[in-house]
Specification:
The chain is of the alpha/beta class. The chain is 37% helix and 23% strand. It starts with 9 loop residues before the first strand and ends with a helix. It binds adenosine-5'-triphosphate and magnesium ion. Magnesium ion binds next to helix 1.
């Protein structure tokens, strides 16, 4: 593919999108370096899925520009599609098929020579070997999510989008997904994920951006984000601000009252 290695894996400039009179994206700018993990944080309805859908060519933007793997999402949508995989917010596994059959199907669709071998390798990697022969309608939420991510890795796309990859997973399954995402980036894949979970961004991402009221209001490494707050007062123990403190300081609301409320809402939603 005609891409240069110095180019950003994802480049977004002045991106605009409205749904009728709802102006969701109001000039979104960011870049994602190749082989890095980029987390897009934002509350419900901030526009995270909208951005992911534009970048994966499922949705057209109204203004600005976006390129993935060096290809413009509007004028070279086919090249973008060949460069990416998307794991959507809602699992895309076929319930009538077994886990292994789902994987074989995707490998066939991607015209790969050895679908069975690929399926078995991924089942092993995502701890699904035993469940591989069962219909996915019998899988737990975490198992489906792992299968979903495994399916997105077939064909080794250079850029993968994960829209809320761990929503609804228990802590153990979350750790498994985090491990898989880190392995991917370690092997050179660029990963862009969205999350509402601040500790997910904190644990996984090389860079974190916060989408708020249609714009990226902060974009930096965890250390840079933490440096935005004045250092915690040294009393008897030194306390570093958590990403959650930074988040609430920037978007408003208190880490105490509002933070707690938000956590409760998240639990109710999942
Ligand atoms: N097809 C659509 N038609 C009209 N409005 C839409 C459509 N899709 C999204 N929206 C609106 O655009 C806004 C952004 O939605 P989006 O799904 O991108 O947010 P999100 O950040 O992914 O939220 P969540 O965390 O709940 O997944 C919301 O106000 C939503 O209601
Ligand atoms: Mg969403």
């Amino acid at each position: 593919m005609a891409t240069s290695t110095t180019q950003a894996a994802i480049a977004v400039a002045g991106l605009e999108k409205s749904y009728k009179d709802v102006h969701v994206l109001r000039g979104v700018d960011f870049e994602v370096e190749r082989g890095s993990i980029f987390a897009l944080l934002g509350s419900n309805g901030a526009g995270k899925t909208t951005i992911v859908n534009i970048l994966s060519t499922l949705l057209k933007h109204d203004g600005g520009a976006a390129a993935v793997n060096g290809f413009d999402v509007a004028s070279a949508a086919g090249d973008v599609r060949e460069s990416i995989s998307l794991t959507g917010q809602f699992a895309a596994v076929d319930e009538i098929l077994t886990g292994r059959e789902n994987l074989v199907l995707v490998a066939r669709l991607r015209h790969l020579p050895n679908p069975g071998e690929i399926a078995d390798g991924l089942l092993e990697r995502f701890s699904l070997t035993e469940a591989g022969g069962r219909r996915t309608s019998t899988y737990s939420g975490g198992m489906r999510r792992r299968l979903d991510i495994a399916m997105s890795l077939i064909g080794n796309p250079p850029v993968i989008f994960l829209d809320e990859p761990t929503t609804g997973l228990d802590p153990e399954a979350r750790l498994e997904v985090w491990g898989a995402v880190k392995d991917l980036a370690g092997a050179g894949t660029t990963v862009m994920l969205t999350t509402q979970t601040l500790d997910e961004a904190e644990h996984l991402a090389d860079r974190i951006a916060i989408l708020h009221e249609g714009r990226i209001i902060v974009n930096g490494t965890l250390a840079e984000l933490k440096a935005l707050l004045p250092p915690a007062k040294v009393e008897y123990v030194e306390k570093q601000p958590t990403l959650e403190d930074v988040y609430f300081a920037i978007v408003g609301g208190g880490a105490g009252g509002a933070g707690k409320g938000a956590a409760t809402n998240r639990e109710e939603l999942s």
